[in-house]
Amino acid sequence: MIARVRAGEREAYAELVRLHADVAHRTAVLLGAGSDAEDVVQVSFVKAYRALATFREGAAFRPWLLRIVANEARNAGRAARRLRSAVERNAALEALPPAADDDPESLAVSRERRAELLAAVQALSEPHRMVVTCRYLLDLDEEETATVLGWPRGTVKSRLHRALARLRAGLGEPVLAARCDDGGRRP
């Protein structure tokens, strides 16, 4: 059947899909794709079709396909976690107090600064993003941050220092200084 697909016979690939769709779907669900299982299976079949030229002659198709499904399920899980994390960070930034004066211009500038800050925090590496989130967005002290992250206190201090330096470089010092003037919070 693989030879027929490689020869350009589309119906042969449709037959492969029909034969393996159920096991591919079960695999995606069991490996954590959840409600995205159907999407994972579709993407997997497309990737398998495109990579068919690399399929080793005489090898079993099913394990090869299920490896693609497993990788896609893992990728979907990571993407879902990143999305949840971004939504949580955004909610945390939205919870920050607004500028002291309530005039529309100040509020607009404050929202703009929050958006810039969120983008800069999201661009940090995971350890730097975690330490900034704990320390400033969750308002934890150094000891609490160390406990939450399971790091020594010195690691929290050094990673926080590096993260703030990266934020300053990414945002420019005036934005951070102005942010600190908006209620005394950092970064």
If you had to describe this structure to a student in words, what would you say it looks like?
This protein is mainly alpha-helical. Helix content is 76%, strand content 0%. The chain is built from 9 helices and no strands. Helix 2 packs across helix 3, helix 3 packs across helix 4 (61-94) and helix 7 (142-149) crosses helix 8 (153-171). It is elongated. The N and C termini lie far apart (60 Å). The relative contact order is 0.08. The model is unreliable at 174-187 (pLDDT under 50).
Q: Could you give a short description of this structure?
A:
This protein has 187 residues and is an all-alpha fold. It has helices at 2-6, 10-30, 37-50, 61-94, 104-123, 126-137, 142-149, 153-171, 173-181.
Number of contiguous helices: 9
Can you write the helix and strand succession as a string? HHHHHHHHH
Span between N and C termini?
60 Å
Oligomer: single chain
Proportion of helical residues = over 70%
Mean pLDDT: 79
| Number of strand elements | 0
Largest sheet: none
Structural class: mainly alpha
- Tell me, briefly, the overall form: elongated
Radius of gyration: 24 Å
Low-confidence stretches: 174-187
Beta-strand fraction estimate: under 5%
Task: Draw up the topology in text.
Blueprint: H1 2-6, H2 10-30, H3 37-50, H4 61-94, H5 104-123, H6 126-137, H7 142-149, H8 153-171, H9 173-181
Helix pairs in contact: 2-3, 2-4, 3-4, 4-5, 6-7, 6-8, 7-8, 8-9
Comma- or semicolon-separated keywords:
76% helix, single chain, 9 helices, disordered C terminus, mainly alpha
